[in-house]
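Entry 14. Ran structure prediction on the chain below.
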Amino acid sequence: VQLQAYGGGSVQAGDSLRLSCAASGRTFSSDAMGWFRQAPGKEREFVARIVWSGGSTYYADSVKGRFTISRDTAKKMVYLQMNSLQPEDTAVYYCNYHEVNGMDYWGKGTQVTVSS
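Output, structure tokens:
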């Protein structure tokens, strides 16, 4: 599975951004896609995940109510709508494909910078 992420940028606190991720290669309905992020000097952390089939979603507590993950199965695309961005959301965001057998695939990161 190959992943290509789009949509990072620099915004002001309170603004919105939408990240997109395109998956190519074999995908299965039991798998999931999502987003992780890594801020300078910190470990990579989970942000959000959506199951390919059925669309169940999961969020980190820090983004609940502000971020929304969605998918377009026909296009093999996943989106992360980020609203009310805060400086602490500044990080490199990575698209992730998670197979039900535990294998993970990663895209190149996209930078999100939020200034106060």
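The mean pLDDT is 95. Will compare against last week's run tomorrow.
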